[in-house]
Each structure stands twice: as structure tokens, then as C-alpha cells.
Automatic annotation (TrEMBL), chains A, B:
Top-rank taxon, per record: Bacteria
Sample GO molecular function, one term: 1,4-alpha-oligoglucan phosphorylase activity
Transmembrane segments: none
Residues annotated as domain Lacto-N-biose phosphorylase-like N-terminal TIM barrel: 11-446
Domain Lacto-N-biose phosphorylase C-terminal positions: 674-725
Species the sequence originates in: Hespellia stercorisuis DSM 15480
Signal sequence range: none
Lacto-N-biose phosphorylase central domain segment(s): 450-669
Protein's name according to its UniProt entry: 1,3-beta-galactosyl-N-acetylhexosamine phosphorylase
Amino acid sequence: MKEKSMDRKRGRVTLPSESNFLEETKEMLDRLGADALRDSDGTKLDAATKALDAKIYETYFVSRGHNEFAKEHMEECQQLYLMSKRALATADQVELSFMDGYYDEQVAPDYVHDVKRWWEVIDRTADQVVLAEDWDVRQEENQVVVRNAVPFHEYTVSFLVYAVWDPTQMYNHITNDWGDVPHDIPFDVRYANSDTFAKEYLKQWLIDNPNVDVVRFTTFFYHFTLVFNSEAKEKFVDWFGYGATVSVKALEEFEAEYGYALRPEDIVDNGYYNSTFRVPTKPYLDYMDFIQRFVAEKAAELVKLVHDAGREAMMFLGDNWIGTEPYGPYFEQIGLDAVVGSVGGSVGCGVTLRLISEIPHVKYTEGRFLPYFFPTAFYEGNDPSIEAQVNWLRSRRAIMRKPVDRIGYGGYLSLAYKFPKFIDYIAGVADEFRLLYDNIGGSRPYAGIRVGILNCWGKLRSWQTFMVAHALWYKQIYSYLGVLECLSGAAVDVSFISFEDLTEETLDSLDVIINVGDAETAFSGGRRWGEEEIVSAVRAWVYSGGGFVGIGEPSAYEKGGRFFQLAEIMGVDKELGFTLSTDKYFKTQMEQHFITEDRTEAFDFGESMKNVYALDQDTEIIEYSDNEVHIASHAYGKGRGVYIAGLPYSFENTRLLMRSLYYAAGKEQEWERWNVTNMYCEVNVYPEKNKYAILNNSGEAQKTWFYDGDGAKEELTLNGGEILWREM
Amino acid sequence: MKEKSMDRKRGRVTLPSESNFLEETKEMLDRLGADALRDSDGTKLDAATKALDAKIYETYFVSRGHNEFAKEHMEECQQLYLMSKRALATADQVELSFMDGYYDEQVAPDYVHDVKRWWEVIDRTADQVVLAEDWDVRQEENQVVVRNAVPFHEYTVSFLVYAVWDPTQMYNHITNDWGDVPHDIPFDVRYANSDTFAKEYLKQWLIDNPNVDVVRFTTFFYHFTLVFNSEAKEKFVDWFGYGATVSVKALEEFEAEYGYALRPEDIVDNGYYNSTFRVPTKPYLDYMDFIQRFVAEKAAELVKLVHDAGREAMMFLGDNWIGTEPYGPYFEQIGLDAVVGSVGGSVGCGVTLRLISEIPHVKYTEGRFLPYFFPTAFYEGNDPSIEAQVNWLRSRRAIMRKPVDRIGYGGYLSLAYKFPKFIDYIAGVADEFRLLYDNIGGSRPYAGIRVGILNCWGKLRSWQTFMVAHALWYKQIYSYLGVLECLSGAAVDVSFISFEDLTEETLDSLDVIINVGDAETAFSGGRRWGEEEIVSAVRAWVYSGGGFVGIGEPSAYEKGGRFFQLAEIMGVDKELGFTLSTDKYFKTQMEQHFITEDRTEAFDFGESMKNVYALDQDTEIIEYSDNEVHIASHAYGKGRGVYIAGLPYSFENTRLLMRSLYYAAGKEQEWERWNVTNMYCEVNVYPEKNKYAILNNSGEAQKTWFYDGDGAKEELTLNGGEILWREM
């Protein structure tokens, strides 16, 4: 790494440590210039380590890990609504063995509260609630018996359970074979005893742990929805799910406040459990808001205790983070000093970096980088520095746009210590990070285009679109998540807007709106595109000069003879079979176009989109193959629309997207400003600091033409991974 | 061809002829054993030809080709409802140039009738009708001006036109550059003068043409919807479309009879014009019935005139055939002697053969085979016998199941005459056809399985599913139409049932129900699957032992947590994004399965279907690739479901479908009865005739094991195209 020869500095780096590793820890603090130490899953810092000249973070669990309390207050145990499997009625009575498929060490039916009030039996074939008088519960068999059933209808019961085992501890417990280690029982601070306990325990803990500088909350109260099957394997995982926030008390308080009662179905939602892919309903949005306000209020009380004790409060973005959404309206009230989260994963290094680095209302953010110091990567014969480099180069793009304030690692330091090449590499990373952090110095880089990502979630789910389990690959998401990964390190300003944000003020702050996703999902927008005000607002804005880039099934909602409600903007619609009788004459790909001008590789639309066709001769067909359009553009008043069939992350597609944005915004003439011709390279400009940087995002040397702010060009060669810093 | 050495017979074959071709015509009648002669587009039979020892067919146009009448009665000209292009309002007034994109030599706006009553302006963005007081027509500019428009809404006007040029004549006129040949003006027999004229003219024509034996109606009154664009190219084509049946008088009579008025939108239907892919609405079904009854009544009057003159009445299945649907409830009343139709086309030789051969209530059916004797196939250097062989071998499969009563050809006989190899080939075809017709002798062959194709159209559209323009290839249909092409020559009984046919009686007559098509189309069924009675009826039937084969998006209708409403039957559903949070563990393809046991080629699912997943461990995953299921099966009570992602026509896929049907029906043990092991071969058994035939459907020699009715096997070799006839 180039910067190695520079003066080394210290700071902005956190390392894990462990007991009986003092001298090596000191050495590593020095090698990496690290200034903070933390514990991890399975490690503890001993007193000598805590006494080192470094900030000490310690993991803190609020609502689990206190079974001495929880067992005494099982009535305050956390709850979930679950939906049973479907049972087919073959006669007029049908039995629902509702625990079938669930893990009885994780969840236990709630027979404490009145099942007739809190449970709901639904005829899923008729889509109707079964009268309470037509069913009963056989507790000893965990069965619901439905009478007066309609033969060959399918029935489910939505039932309340107690969540008697924290799912993260459960996962670690089972994976690591912890035997008779007690099962952590999560309790609910909505109840008075739990609330008091949580605060009192923290107070005492702060007294008992004077050497901890940073309380690393992991996290607060409610775990994202994570339910196991009867073989103790993951059955349902939604990193955004509110499933575990439910309780009878919460439902009662909701009704008192909102004036209407939630039904179990408002939570269970056909078994979809309000996945973030669902266009959210009003009751669900109300419920989220209700939970967020409660969580913010309660979390703020704990943070205050930490501050009163003279320490910092850091939140780990994960586990029990539901209700703390950092981009939500109540996050500021929590008063946290810092948020730390995991960077990387198979589908989005840049995305997860920005997800953390953009978090507002904290003093600092910290990204925990891969690989985790676990035997999965650190085994004999493997070179973990390879994974580290891939992750770093992809994350670094995003850091150049908006750095986290700190980087860190997790796991067993003693393990990583045995891999000197790796240590060398991350020592270089630490130096490079500090250098670029200093160079950027809190300034915002130049952006050629201001982009708004439009979906049902808007700001709340900034950099969190299309995720299911945190940063894992899913066939149905990678072609769309790629858009965000491309943008995460590109010279554009990115904001996330919801359909409620289509105001003049917001629209005025944008050059291009991107709408991306599958039909009927919250990300393309589903039925929201049936609302005339929404459609008109976007049309009016594009017509007056805005740019619209649609990817996948943008604005899809079959109505009034169109599937894409913005078909006239993009110049394409999708054939559902209803317009096969209409001749489609427009099939000729343009010989060249700004968007694909420098494309040399074959196109990769990922899962792509079938049956998209051009509306008329004014559609610019930029890619046509297999009897369908995959890239197109169309003028619309003073503005333009662009359609792309899918955009998995790659260097090539980043370039394609950037050109699409410039074209949609009508700024092609600005393309050769602060730009490079080689797609493996990128330019970031920091006007406030009078600096700019040319990055080589690849591991190999690259030759490129570079255009400065006036369009003057210069040929450059960069080493693999090099950042060339220059004064303006 | 094997049968050439046999005794030649005469009959069952129609040839085209033309003027001044007498001796060659005689020779050809003899060579092919033809017993009928016809005229064609562009040819006439002279008196000497008509005097030959052959039945004489002559083309007869009822409602066009009589401009001397039509011009005097332009108020009885046929009409259409058309939808204008969408116009974007950018202010509170918007102009709709409604003729934009239409061909003014084909259609002319109807300013005779009150536009405020008969036209409809629709705000397609709000999906609302605009008040009549808010718009006016500027006749001189063919414009509608909408006031009080909502900016950035899109508007259309549905307007009535007179159809002043018959679209088939128009197509021939333009294609063949007929210059100043007058444009045939179609008139509407719903009006008194036209009705009288049609009958009187026919009466006189029958007197004037004593040598015509068969009046070949081409066809009766209303052309399928065929509209041209402003460049006189095809703009909209729907072989099933009722567009041209509309008139003010029809709409008034409909209202009087049904007690409600149709809106223009009931015809225009968002610009989809009630494509057969649309799940039909009640008003549209009412309207079709209304037209069918009228057409049957009026056509019967003409047929009676033909019969009274001692001639036969034959209908050409095409052109002005709307309302005559041969599988409809009123067809029998027309009293026709015969139907002739075109066999072949790029997507379905067998399908189009069965479409004709299964027509009930006529004395005989006739298939017109390809190639047509036109210069497109008969040019120097081309061997038209190649196309003839492909078509014949594919059609022959279907003939073996249910023969047409006659075969024929069309075009210029003088042209074909110059290709002796071709003449030799079709002479052999004629002999083979007569032989197999005699052998089959009106008996129904053995069927291993009774199949019902379930869709919104049922019997009415027997062998006509998925068609847009007659038998043309469309990307969106070939993967589904292949199912019918496979079945057309397979040893199964095929019926077409609608959702209204799910009665005990109909279901008892079936072994397997097939549901095939894209979501929301009339062929998969769309919203009909939201009806609990329909879902329950199919479930109950399968549960009691029936078989269900779903292809594409069968039973698709998102409701109650499922996309495929019969997911539990097939063991699969399609991921729309809402259940990504639910872990999908079932991904392992079975090592072997009855359905794919003898598959050697790679699978071909055509357009295939994405994101289909197995529900649980009971799903038999038969093909899994690219992270999705393409073939699966599942037990359901005593019955079974099978899912297939798509099934374009091929020998391999015919086999796959047949195995799927046997498996779904639980009849695997009957597979080795009256069957062969070589997929290029098929067996047809005629118990009433004590005969069976083993076909080689390929052009090359094939070796195969043959299983007789007791399962005894025997190895056979068949020459290319051979049919081996045997006594039982």
C-alpha cells in the first residue's frame, strides 16, 4: 500500500482483544495505530487489558442475559404473533396443529391471555375471519379445532407465543454447542418490572465496570424477527421485522392511543409478516411509529444513565435494534454517541458502509470490517488478506463519499495474530483510512448528479432497500441492490425518498429519481402508483426537466391500459399478454448511444426483465435482444426517462448507471468533468479542501484518461488499489 | 411414401385451379385423385373447368364486394370503436387528435350519431370518465378538446368510426398493388337494407352460377378485429376480436334486450379491446352472446337459400367469422354442410388441424394445407416439398387422433405444376390421407388419459387458446401453445372446460386437468382463482384422486398468502418478494423420477418461469436449476399435482407432458401399454376397427420398443415418416 511510507498516525481504529493476550495486544495497538479495544462474542477483556492506553468498549445486553430476573417474571417475557401452517378442511371440522414447524424451545403458546380475544382463525381461501364461536383450543395438544369449516378451504390460526429464548443467543448456543449454558429469556421493558430492572441493572453495572469507556449496546429491546423451525434451523428471518415487539400490553396501549385495535392479521399479514417488500398498510405504519416512539424514549433513559456515569453510549446496528431505526424520526432523541455496524457481506460492501456512515445525530460511526477473526477465514493454508482486500477496495469507494469515523475488527485477535501478511495488510488499511479521513476532513465531495431513490420506505430505510437478512445474497434482490452498490461509491448525492416526499421542495433538490424493484413490492411501489397525485407529481417534475431512471418493474401497477404507470416517460411498457394484439414495430437497437458508448463487455442485467417493449418511434432503444428491450430512453417534455432491465453490481454496470443518470438529467455535456475513461477508476473531488483523489478500485494497475473540472484531459497510470491524491 | 405402391383411390382432396389451365387441371385431378376444385384469391375458374368431373367450390363474400349497394347505403356501413392515443394534459385543457395513428382510408369518424352519447373521454390516470360537458369535438380537425383537465393526467377518447374498407381486401390490395381497384366497403346486415340485399343477391347469384356445387362463404358478416396504422400497416390484430361487430343499432338493441347499456369502455377495454388473454367481463360475455345469436340467425337464412338451391354451404374459418364460433352454442343453428380452414403455421400444425377436425354439427371438415401455391414458396431453387413434409408429419399426428374429412390446397395450380417433386410428394400425401382415413373410419382411438384444459373460455375456444393472429409465433405464447401442440397428436382425449364447467359430471369425465398460462390472463384464469367455489371444486376433485398439471403460472392470483391458489396441490408457489424472509430449504432435485425417466436431452422450458420454489419436504423436485424449481410434483389426498415451468412444442416435451399426465393421474403402471420407447414414434389404437398404427413422426428411420395393450414388448424399426398399420 502506497501510504505505508508516510508518517504513521494513531487513532480511528478499534481492535478486539481477549484475556491473557496483553503483550501481543500492545504490539497490535502499535502496529495498527489502534486506539480502542473491544470484547467480542466469546471473548472478555481482562483487567490488565482494560488498563491499557486505549478506549475500552464492552458489549452490553439490555433485555437478555438476565435470567435471574426473567425467570421470576415470565409474564413479562417477550412475545410474537405466529401464523400456523395451512390446514386443509376435508370435512366440516379441521384441526390446526399450530406449533407444527416451530421450535418449542424458542416459543411457547400464550395461554395466559384470552385466546378468543388475541388469536385469530382465518379461512385463507375465502379470506375471512372465522367466528370465535366456531373454534376452540385444545391446550394439551396445541391444537385449534375449527367447526363449521368449508370443505377444501385452507385455514390458519394466528396465535400469540412467548419468546422464551433470545434468537441470537440461541443461534450461537446451537452453532457452538454450548450444552447446558442457560437459554437467555428476553423480557419486555414495556412492563414495569422489566423496565425498572433494566435501568437498575445498568446503573449498578456502570458502577461495577469503571474501566469501560464505551457501553456497546447489543442492542436495546426488541430483536428483528428471527424464528426457528422444529429442527432448530432458521425458519423466518427479517432484519427489519417488528414481530418480536408485540405484546398484549403493547396492543392495548396502541388501541388506547390510536383509537382502533390492531388485528393479529395486521402483524401476521398472510404469513408475509409485513416484510419490507410489502407495500406497508396504514395500521402497520401506525404500529411501527408507536414502537419507534416507545423504543426511543426507553433507550434514551438508558443512554442518559450511561452519560450520567461519564461514559459513551454506542449502539450495535443489529440484533435487538427494532424501533431504533437510525434514519427514523425518533433516533435523535435516543442521544447516542455512536453507532457501530458490520460492513460487507456478499451483496453490498459500499451499501453497508454508507448505511452506517450516513447515520445522523451521533458523534461518530464505526464500521466493523471483514473478515471477522474467526476460524472460518483464519485457517491454515488460507490467506485472509485476499478477502480483506476485496472488501476494503469495495468499501473504500463508499468511504470516499462519506467516511465512517472509525474502522474496526472483531473476533479473536490471537487468531489473526498468526497471519502476519494479513496484519500487514490491515495495518496498511488503517493508515490509508486515517489518511483519507484526514484529507476528506468532514467535507462533502463534489457530486455530478443528485439522485433520489423513490420507494415506499424513503429515508427510514436509507441504504437498506432490498435487504432480507443483513447483506445476504438472494436471487430476487441482487439485480436491484446492485443499483445502490454502484451508487455507494459514485460521485453522486444520494437521498432516499418516499411517496410522501414528492413535494416541490424535495423534487427541486434532485436531478434524477430512481425507482427500482419488482412489481407490487414496496421498492417499486405497487399500489401507490395507482394514486393519481403520485403519478402526476412525478410526470410534472420530469416534464419540467427532471430525469427518471426505472429499473426492473418501475412504477408497475396495471391500470388504465398501462402496466408501467410511467410508461410514457421511459418509452417502454411490459407486455402482460393483454396487448399482444397490438403490433410492436419498434425493435431496432440504436447503433450508438451515450449510455452505452464505452461499453465493451456483454451486458449483464442479472435476473433481467422479460417482455418489455418500446411504445413508439420516439423511444430510443439502447439494447434489444431476445425479442425484448433491456435499455431504453425517451424524452418527456424537457426531461427524460431511462429504463434498465436490471443492474447487478459490477464496474461495467456502475458506469452504465452513471451514464444513465447523466443522460436522464440531460447533463451529457458534463460527463467529461471530474471523470475518468477507465471504468475501474473513479474520481472524488473535495472542493472545501482543495483536494481531489483518483482511485483505482481494482487490484491491478490501470491506465486512464482523467478529465479535470474544466474538461482538460491527462493520461494517468495507477497501481493496483492506488489512490492518487492531488491539490486542486 | 410407403403407400404409393398401393391401389390408388379417388376423393377427399380439393385442388385450386384457374382459367386457361384445363388439361393440366385434369392431369392433376388424376395424379392426386382429387374430386373438388376451387378458386382462390386472384384466380377464377372458367366454364370449361367448372364442367369437369369434380365438385366446384366458389368463394362467396356476403358483406363486402358489393360497392354498388354499399355506396348507396353508407349509413349501414360497418363500425368500430377505437381508442385514441393517450394525450398528456400539461395544463387544464388538452387536445386529443384521435385519428392520429389510424389509417383514414380504412376508418372514418362517425359524426352522424351523437358523439356525446356514443363517445367516451376517459382520464386514464384517474381511471374516470370525463363529463360530456367537459369536452367537445372539432370535426374539421378530428380533435376532442377536453376542458377542466387535471395536469399530468393522460386522456383518451373512445370513438365510433365507420369501417370504410374491408381489412382483408385492403391487405391484399396494398400487398399486391391493385391500384384503382375499388375499396370494398363492408356493410352491416343488422340494418334492413343490407339484410335484404345480402339475401336477394345470394338468391340471384345461385341462379346465375348453376355450376357451383359448394358455396364457400368467406365468411359471413363481421371481420375479426384488424385495424391499420397511418402508414397502412397492421396496427391491431385479434383473430377473436369483436371490434367490427359494433354499431349504434347493435348497441341499442343490446340495451333493449339486456336492460343495461354497454359503455364504449366495455368494447375498448383500456385499449386491450377484450383480447382473448383478458379475463372476460360479464358485459363482454353478454355482448358476445348477443352477437353470436344474431350471426347464427342471419347466417342460417343464407345457408337455407343455398340449400334451397340444391347446393352445399361451406364456411371458411377466418376473415368475417366473428359470431360463428364453431364450438359455440349457436353454431349448429347455422346449418352448414362444411367448414374449411388453414392447417399449419409457425406455432401449431396439430393444433390448427384439430381446431378444424373437431368441429361439430357439419357433414365434413376440410383442412387447407401448406405451402400455399404462391411465389413465396414456389420460386426457382426452392424445394417446397420440404415445407410440405414438415407440415404433413406434424399435422398427421393430429389426423390420427381425429381426421379432417378432406384435405386441400390453395393458390396457383399452374405454379405448383412446375415443381414435379412437390407434386409427387403431395400425391403421396393424398394417398396416405385416404388410407388412414379409411382405416380410422370415423372411430375414436384409444386414449390413455382424459384431459381437460381449464381456462376462462372453455369449449368455445377449443384448440384456439393463446392465439393472437391465427397460428403466428409470439414470444409470450409458444411456451404454452406447445402444450396443445403436444396433445394434438397424443393418445389422450382432450376437452376444453371453463370455470363454469367444474361440475361433478364434467369432472367425473376427466383424469387430469391442465391449467396453463401467464398470471392474470384468461388462460391461467386470473381473478377467477379468487373465487372460493372454483378453488374448492378443483381441490376436492384432486383430493379424491384427480390429477392437476399446472404450467407457467397456473391458478395464479395473489390472495391469502399464496400466489398459486393451488400451491398445495403442486407443491410449489412463486416468490413475488413477499416471502423472501421465509427460509426455502427444499432445493434438491430427485435423482430420478417417472416424469423425467427417459429424458436424455437438456430441458427446454421455453420462456420458462422464474422464482418458483418448493413448499415443503413432500414436494418432489424433479428439475431444479438456477435457484428455482422447473418441474415438481406433489401428492394431494388420493390425487397428484404436477408443475412445469413452460412447455414449447418438441418431441422431447411431448414425452415429458405425457409422462406428467400419467403421473398426475396415478397411472404410471399403464405407461407401458400401447406405447413406444422412442419419443419420435407414437401409437394409435382403433379398437372399433381392430387396428392400430405405429407412427414414425420424424423424417429419419427409428428403432423403438413397442408395448401392446397387454404390455408385451417388441422391437421395431420404422422408416422415416412411416406408419405401420396392424390388425389387433
